[in-house]
Task: structure prediction
Amino acid sequence: MRVPIIAGNWKMNKTIGEAVEFVEALKAETASAQNVEIIVCPPYTAIHKVAKKTAESNIRVAAQDVFWKEQGAYTSQVAPNMLLDAGCTYSIIGHSETRGRFGKEDMSPAQFAFFAENDETVNAKVHAALAAGLKPIMCCGETISERRAGKTDSIIQTQVEKGLAGLSPEQAAGMVIAYEPVWAIGTGEVCDTPEANRVCGMIRAKVRAMFGDGAANSVRIQYGGSVKPDNAQELLSQPDIDGALVGGASLKVADFVAIVKSA
Ligand code: PGA
Result:
């Protein structure tokens, strides 16, 4: 059986003090939660403090990104072993926001071009993370225009195929893949439950085709995109949805706890 995995992606929110306050409350509220993996993804600045505060608990810490080199002249980047050293167990890789997959109304085109993650960099990051012992949460998702053009399945399959290229079946088995339709991120517009489950099932089928039954049965596939306390239970009850990657609703303890409890 796959253990459900609920991750709260805080994005660029919370100071160290706010992050510590959050996890103290989360720890108290989820101390008896069993058979669910709880993850918080603070900004880099708060990772170490949050990891220390959650060390003796059932809460794990993820970074929101990682670089593929071990060390060197890469100003601003953070290596997998540095994240492990700071207390991370996981890292998000290839979020649609870092891929520049949706427009930021408050940015110029040149500013928006800063977000340029692609399948090849995602793949390099996945390999580097796994080699160091950091577990990837690799994101994929289609835009609304791709969905309207009937390209959802081919876009997702390509992202999964390129993102996981070159892994061993054992490495693939330990992956977490987050299916996040771009049009559902931060919009309040959630993907229909049967459709979310269908795409997650298609991702599992792709993993099966690439790596075999063992990997397909073990890989955990999350749905993300406007997951809230009132839709979490329905989404999480689907056979191919093994968890949730939660943005906005992970910023409030009560909402995040309600989603954890639905799992
Ligand atoms: P959201 O974000 O829950 O606010 O839609 C999800 C994500 O970006 O991971």
In short: The CA atoms of residues 81 and 132 lie 6 Å apart. The chain has a mean pLDDT of 97.
